[in-house]
Amino acid sequence: MAAASLGLGRLVRADLRHHRRSLAGVFVAIFVASALVTGLGVLVESGIRGGLAPQRYTAAEVVVGAAQQVDVPEDLPVALRERAPLPADAAREIAELPGVEAVVADVTVPLAASGAPDPTAVVEAHPWAASALTGFTLSDGREPAEAEEVVVTADSGHAVGDTLSLAHGGVPADYRVVGVVTAPVPPERGAAVFLTGDRIAELDPHGGAPQVLGVFVEGEDAEAVATGIGETLPGVVARTGDARGDVEFLDSGAARTMLVAIGSAFVGTCILVALFIVAGTLSLSVQARRREYALLRAVGATPQQVHALIAREVLAVAAVAAVLGLAPGYLLSTVLQTAFVAGGVIPGDFALAVSPIPAAGALLLVLGAAWGAARIAARRPARLDPIEALRESSTGPGPIGLPRIIAGIVFAAAGVSVSTVPLVVRGDAAVGASAGAALMLIVALGLLGPWLVAVCVRLVGPLLRRLSAAGFLAAANTAAGSRRLAAAILPIALGIGLGLVQIGGPAIVADEAAQQARDGVTAELRVSAPVGLSPATVEALRGAPGVTGASGVALSAAVIDSRDIEGQLERTEYVLQGVDPATVDGLLDLQVQEGALAALDGGRAIAVSVDTAHTLGVGLGDTVTGTMGDGTALEATVVAVYERGLGFGALTMDAAHVRAHTSAGLDAFALVSVEGDAAQTADALAAGGLLVAPASGQKATGADAVSQQGWVNLVALLVILGYIAIAVVNTLVMATGERSRELALLQLIGATRGQVRATMRVEAILVAAISMVFGVLVAIPPLMGMSYGISGQPVPAMPVLGSLAIIGGMGALALVALRVATGAALRRRPIEEIGSRE
């Protein structure tokens, strides 16, 4: 047994020395996979351990806030979009704990800097006592003592004695600068001003209730104090060190969840793509050496030994490639971070966590995928009997087996069938079904690819033979090597199909949302302010000259409970819109199908979109439970079901109730109807410091979230298409290199280099054309199903330029790669090539 193992080891080493070129493709595919998985692993770890360092709370050893997430069983938590309230007695109870020297409460009230060069400029107002949390000290003047007094930071450009106009909810007020403060490390995010505690309580819609508590520690370890706070007040979180930033910044928790979700999904997709590509690349390598495996089987090698030989060779190459891919993977993580920051998916100052853990995970996953690919590639040479193996070494592999054809047909039928789910189901279920259908069709293409390519070659063969001598040779070569051709076609078709579905989904959603937003607004003007509109400002709009109606709209989010088909609890975040049922009529048309918005009253009633009603399985009179944006429990009865959920949010409640559970306590905007000259009315309102725009340009509610999701899909697509592009070049170079003896033989019997190049050019065009056709065919059923499920229209609203770029780019890749590979294969003299292969 030991001798057999020793002999197998020597054989593996000899193969690695003598077949470097055929194994180079495997090396490249695994190297790229290792880099991708490592980079994505860094993102996942950053979602767990990374984050935002504190800025305003650097002077306090412990920072305390309410829990900003909703836990989901066996899934990632859902981050809350609004600031969750602290328990009323939290400050007093924490102050009584051992080691606590002082507790300082902070409240943030966003104000608009009226008269600033930027009309959307926002500053954060805090009570004067909170200046101690950053270590601010007065460099000039004094602390504020009156309601109209303000202290500014040294970089604000204001001095003691200046007048500063600040607006809250659209209502401006003048403040006199009485002090200027500096800090050892000034906060980089946003400008801050300090008012009296009483003035903050007047401005804050929640009466100045503490949002965050800074705890100063004396004679105790900060971690011990934080632990004690958590044990005393289970409903709060106490953080020390850099983790204090999680309490300070609401977007930190959302970024964590997003990175974990994105990284995990990308890793899974990359491993599947890697398995697919490495298996295809390895199959080419094995096929190029089929004569050797045939001889091994003929001299008595068992199937297990052939499996072991191929597995050892692949793992030896994979181990080196995977290790070398780790360092580029860490560099890739910073590139991905930059891309997600550019799309607004995560904040620009979110710090990545870097450790050896992603590298270790990448090695395990990539080597596991390589081993699986080796098992797949070794099946055919290992199971052939010796006589059949020798025959196949000369004639090449035969057609794919009947079981594989049957499996492919089953997957294709399932994919087409699942694509029709939107005919009977609406909403998220329809979108999810379409995405699943795309995967099924891609698997079907992988299984049926060689057979489908052979059929296509037979169909176009007669035409090619009549074109020219090059066409005749290309037809003969492709007919004989349809399996080899399929290895080049399938990755390209996979990239096209996957790319079209990836860019098509967000485009379909965005197009329908924009259409609903345009159709649903019946008002003439949309009025807003940098930080929102107060109810008093909306009321004042109703009395403005030329205004016949005005209604405020509040925006937030809610996490709704539901059950899956197995009864498992699910929690999903939805956009929540707040409208005033008494004034919204005539300004906003949600296209109500059942019930009436007039029944919205307080927090006990809710309206849901048709798609959401289907997803949650609710109707009129049913109860919806969940969590408001600030963590408060939600339990409301469905009083209306409306159609335009993509344009205006999946859920709608009374505006006063939604405002009460937002951080700012303000309406996001107001819809205004006018009589007479709308432009004149708009100018008059704008002169009062408000932001006025035509209501016809209303952006869909939740458009930013759709845009972010589209950006994530685009980044994912670029990463995956980049990998596929490398794999395509890799595959075509290997496949063409395997045919170097064939190309040399053509030249020896009289073909010129130009004729050989022309033959390869025809084959390249054939590869590109079949790939594009297959890729588009794979994408059509799921995209049509997705479009019907979202907009009710079977023809999807696809981005034309993006679609053409994907189809044309992947097709052109085949042309360029084959041209380069052909040039490399023709470098040696034909007689030398024939001799070397013998």
Automatic annotation (TrEMBL):
User: What is the superkingdom listed in this entry's lineage?
Assistant: Bacteria
What the entry lists under InterPro entries is as follows:
ABC3_permease_C (IPR003838), Membrane_comp_ABC_pdt (IPR038766)
Question: How is this protein positioned relative to the membrane?
Answer: Multi-pass membrane protein
Transmembrane helix among keywords: yes
Question: Which residues are in the ABC3 transporter permease C-terminal domain?
Answer: 265-385, 715-828
Q: Does the keyword Protease apply?
A: no
List membrane-spanning regions: 23-44, 258-282, 314-332, 352-374, 405-425, 437-464, 485-509, 711-733, 762-780, 800-821
> One short Pfam family name for this protein?
FtsX
State the compartments where it is located: Cell membrane
Q: Which UniProt keywords apply?
A: Cell membrane, Membrane, Transmembrane, Transmembrane helix
* PANTHER family, alphabetized: INNER MEMBRANE PROTEIN (PTHR30287:SF1), MEMBRANE COMPONENT OF PREDICTED ABC SUPERFAMILY METABOLITE UPTAKE TRANSPORTER (PTHR30287)
Q: What is this protein called?
A: ABC transporter permease
**Which species is this UniProt entry from?**
Microbacterium sufflavum
